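Hi V.,

Quick status before I head out on leave. The structure for the redesign project is tokenized and pasted below; the design run finished overnight.
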């Protein structure tokens, strides 16, 4: 069984993430979306909230599971029996960091490979930070995230 992990902060999940999840789920038997608990960042949403939001927007895909994790990604992958890491690539700016991480992870565990999916051109500009910045100023985020997520984001700023 081909198990892949799509890790990230998902603070909050955007249409860009959902597009990667939909496409990645088609090239593996099981896709685990790994929500990173990162104590050095101060996210807008708690890890439980981020897991719940993801679960709400991926209901239409059968072979996807959402889990939280902390620590090294390669350790989490091993725990989950996954040997593929999926990452989305938006622009050249993503590339350098992703290139370093992919190599570092492969050196830490040579059985694990990283697969990159290029962004859907419609979402190439989109990041969770953009969503928060626009929502923080009361702007319209309906093109960036599903309605259920938009409501939760606005609630945080009200
Ligand atoms: P962000 O960079 O938006 O805070 P994450 O850290 O949660 O997002 O990113 C998780 C993964 O999703 C990364 O591989 C990132 O490159 C990818 N990703 C984020 N936004 C998009 C997008 N709009 N299109 C494609 N991939 C994306």
């Amino acid at each position: 069984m081909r198990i892949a992990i799509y890790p990230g902060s998902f603070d909050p999940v955007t249409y860009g993430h959902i597009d990667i999840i939909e496409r990645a789920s088609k090239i593996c038997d099981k896709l685990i979306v790994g929500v990173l608990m990162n104590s050095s960042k101060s996210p807008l949403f708690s890890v439980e909230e981020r897991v719940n939001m993801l679960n709400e927007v991926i209901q239409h895909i059968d072979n996807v599971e959402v889990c939280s994790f902390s620590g090294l990604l390669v350790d989490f992958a091993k725990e989950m029996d996954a040997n593929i890491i999926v990452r989305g690539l938006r622009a050249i700016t993503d590339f350098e960091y992703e290139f370093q991480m992919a190599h570092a992870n492969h050196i830490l565990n040579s059985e694990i490979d990283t697969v990159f999916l290029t962004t859907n051109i419609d979402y190439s500009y989109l990041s969770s930070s953009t969503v928060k910045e626009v929502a923080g100023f009361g702007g319209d985020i309906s093109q960036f995230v599903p309605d259920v997520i938009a409501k939760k984001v606005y609630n945080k700023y009200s």
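Above is the designed sequence. The radius of gyration is 15 Å.

G. will cover questions while I'm gone.

Best,
W.
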